């Protein structure tokens, strides 16, 4: 869906891979799945926050549950299953700054 809207997209298959990618690249937005191999998306987000500029990289929780992930340090929350309109709506405030 994001590639259809001309976003450059990278994909990590695990939290460990995401951490490596963040250490090697600069990202404007990270969609972080909450349930992942190795450790949770919340744990990954907290580790990533130590290595990025919070003002330039936004991390959005991607989850089935309606928990308050923003209170845990995420910049936003996207519920599964994802509908294109919801995805674009949640990203709009961030991509307008890019």
Describe this structure in words.
With 98 residues, the protein is an alpha/beta fold. The chain has a single domain (3-95), classed as Response regulator (Rossmann fold, 3-Layer(aba) Sandwich), CATH 3.40.50.2300. The chain contains three helices and three strands. It has helices spanning 15-24, 41-49, 84-95, and strands at 29-33, 58-63, 76-79. A three-stranded parallel sheet has the order 1-2-3, with helices on both faces. The longest helix has 12 residues, at 84-95.
Q: What is this entry, summarized?
A:
This protein is an alpha/beta fold. It is built from three helices and three strands; from the N terminus they run αβαββα. 32% of the residues lie in helices and 15% in strands.
CATH topology: Rossmann fold
C-alpha end-to-end distance:
18 Å
Main sheet: strands, sense, barrel: 3 strands, parallel
Number of domains: 1
Task: Tell me the CATH architecture.
Answer: 3-Layer(aba) Sandwich
Give the C-alpha Rg. Answer: 13 Å
Number of helices: 3
Low-confidence stretches: none
């Amino acid at each position: 869906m994001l590639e259809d809207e001309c976003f450059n997209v990278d994909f990590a298959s695990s939290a460990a891979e995401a951490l490596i990618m963040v250490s090697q690249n600069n990202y404007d937005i990270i969609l972080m799945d909450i349930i992942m191999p190795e450790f949770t998306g919340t744990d990954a987000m907290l580790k990533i926050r130590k290595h990025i500029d919070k003002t330039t990289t936004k991390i959005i929780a991607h989850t089935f549950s309606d928990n308050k992930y923003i209170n845990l340090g995420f910049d936003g929350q996207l519920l599964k299953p994802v509908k294109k309109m919801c995805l674009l709506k949640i990203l709009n405030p961030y991509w307008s700054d890019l």
